[in-house]
Amino acid sequence: MTGTAAIEAAALGKRFGRRGGWALRDCAFRLPAGRVCAVVGPNGAGKSTLLTLAAGLLAPTEGAISVLGTVPGAARERVAYVAQDKPLYPQLSVAETLRMGADLNTDRWDASVAQRIVDDGDLNPKSRIRTLSGGQCTRVALALALAKRPELLLLDEPMADLDPLARHEMMGLLMAQAAESGTTIVMSSHVVAELEDSCDHLLLIGGGRVRLAGEIDELLAAHVHVSAPAHAVLAPHTVVESRTTGRQLSALVRPSSTLDTDWRTSTPSLEELVLSYLRNPEAGAAPAAKTEETAV
Amino acid sequence: MTALATPPVTGRPAGSSPHLLHWLLRLHRPALLAWTVFVLVLGGLLLWVGGPLTEGAVEGWKQYHACETGGCAYDPSAVGRHKDWYMYTTFAVIGVPVLIAAWSGATLTSRELEHGTAQLAWTQSVSPARWLAAKLAVPAVLVAVGSGLLVGLHHWAWSTGQGRLDSAKSWYDVGTYAANGPATAAMALAALVIGALFGLLKRNSLGSLVGSLCGTGLLWSVMAIATPHLWPTVTKFSSLKNDVPQGSGIIVDQGLVTSTGAHVADPHCGGSGFASCQARYTKLDAVGYYNDYHPQSHYWPLQLTATAIILAVTALLALAAFRLLRRQTGPSAPARKAAAV
C-alpha cells in the first residue's frame, strides 16, 4: 500500500449554498492506486458529490482532496469521469461525439477502444445522441471515458441504465482495463450485489461521512456474524448490530479478542456488512482508521 | 474480453491544444446560422433604406415642395415608406443587445451546466477556464463584427438622408443616437458576458435568461441616463425674443438667466414679444435663456466615452465570471507553497 494514492481526502467537506446542508463532511480516506473501489451508500449519502469533487468539477468547501498526487484540476488529462445522468451533446452523432473526444483530449486518446465499445453495442455511428436510449448513452459515455486511457476512472452509478447482458459485458470491459492498464476504478452504486464480485476496495458513505473504508477482504475478515444465546454478553467486542429473536441473539461484531467458542460464527457477506453499518449510524468506523494507518 | 490488447494510439503530440474552436462552432451551429442570417438580412435592409428608399423619399419631398407653390397632387408613399423602414431597422439594431442577452443567458453557459455537458467538456482534458475563455471569445468576435457592421450601416443609412430629407431624424433622436453608434455594439458584448455570468451563477436556462435580460437592461439604462453627463456641455445664451432657448442637440439643462447671472426655471411662456410673457420675464428679472447642451460636435466624444465605459464594465464582468468559475470548480494547478515569505 505504498506509492501515490489514487484519491486522498482529508477533512473533506462540501456544502451547497451558503446556508445549505452539508452533502459531505469530515471525510478522510486514502484509496491506493490500482484498486477497483466501490463507493456504496444510500441515496443522497454524498457519493455523487464525492466523485464530482474527485473529478475536479466542484471545489470542496473545506478540507482537501488530492487525485493522483495533485489537485483534481491538474489531473484532468489522467482522470475520466462518467456522471450519473451520462450527459452528452444531444445534437452530435455518435461518431461526432467520439471525434470530439479525440479532439478535446490529448495524446492519450485511443480511438480504437472507443470504436470497439460503440460497435459492440450495435450503435449506428450516424445516430444522433438524442435518439439513443439510456443504455446506449451509457455505452457512448463509457467509450469516451475508456478511450481516454485514464489512470483513474470515476463512474457514478455506471450500470443503472444497462440491461443485464450489457452490464456483464461492460463490467468485463472495465475489469480488463483495470487488469491491463492498472487503472484505478472508482464506481458508486447503491446496489451492493452489483459490485461484490468485481471490487476489492470499499468506501461506505452514509449521511455525508465515510462510515467504512478499506480492502473488502480485510473488512470481511475483521467482522464476524455471531449467533449466541440471548443472554450472551458481547461486551469486549465492538458490536455493529445485534438483534434478539426469542432466546437467540444474532449480531455482527468486530472481535477484539478470541470469541467465545460456544457461539456459532460465520463470515458475513459484503451486503450484510454494508447493511448492518447503514442500519446503525452510530456504529464506529474503526477499520477505516486502521487501514489509513497502514497506508501512510 | 480481449478487446483491449495493445491498441494503436492515435492523437496529437502531448501539450498540443485541443480543437475547441471547431467543436464550439459545431455545437452552436444553429445560433451561428441565425446570427449570420440576422446580420445579413438587417444589413441588406439598411442598405435598402440608405439607398433606394432614401432616394425615393428625396424625390417625394422634391415633389411636395414643387406642389407647395403650384398646388398639385404628389405621392407621399415613398416618404412614408422610408420613414417606416428607417424606424423598423432602427428598432432592430437597438434590439441586438437584447437578442444577445437572451441567447447568452439562455444557452451559452447555463444550458451546458444544467445538462452536465459543460462538466463533460471539463473531464475531456479541457479546463473550465479554457472552456469559458473559448465560450466567450468566439461569440465575442462574431458579436463585435456583426453588431459593429450593423451600427455602421445604420449610421450610413441615416447619413444619406441628412440635409436632403425633411423627415430625416436628427442625430440626437434617442433611437437614432443609439442605433448609430459603437456604444450599442459594446452593449451587445456586455450582454454576452452578462448572460455567461448569470449562466454560471444560476446554472439553469430560465433563471439565467431572466437575470441576463435584467442585468443588460440595468446596465443599458444606467448608461442611457449617464450619457449626457459623460462630456462637458456647451452653454448657449439666447435672447428672450425667441420662443424657446436656442441650440439643438442633447439638452442637459435649460431655463432663464437673470441679471445677476442666476439660473431660474423657464415658465415656458413663449417669446418676449407677447406682452404677458414680457411681464413675467420682467417680474423674474430674466434677461435671456440659457441652454446647457451637447451640439453635434459632441457626438463622437459622447459615444466613445460611453463605449469605453461599457467595455471596461464588460471586462470586469468577464473577470468576475472567470473568478466565479474558479471558485466553483477549484484550482487547476497545485497551490504553490508560500515560497516568497
Describe the structure.
In chain A, β8 and β9 form a beta hairpin. Chain A has 296 residues and is α/β, with parallel strands linked by helices. Chain A has a 6-stranded mixed sheet, sandwiched between helices. Chain A has a 4-stranded antiparallel sheet with strand order 11-12-10-13, with helices on one face. A 3-stranded antiparallel sheet of chain A has the order 2-1-4. Chain A is elongated. By secondary structure, chain B is of the alpha+beta class. Chain B has 12 helices and 4 strands. The N terminus of chain B is likely disordered. At the A-B interface, β5, α2, α3 and α5 of A face α1, α6 and α12 of B.
Biggest pleated sheet of chain A: 6 strands, mixed
**Which pair of chains has the greatest number of interface residues, and how are they split between the two chains?**
A-B, 52 and 44 residues
Question: Into which percentage range does the β-strand content of chain B fall?
Answer: 5-15%
Mean pLDDT over all positions of chain A:
85
Gross geometry of chain A: elongated
- Give helix % range of chain A: 25-40%
Q: What's the N-to-C terminus distance of chain A?
A: 8 Å
The radius of gyration computed from the alpha-carbon positions of chain A, rounded to a whole number of angstroms, is: 21 Å
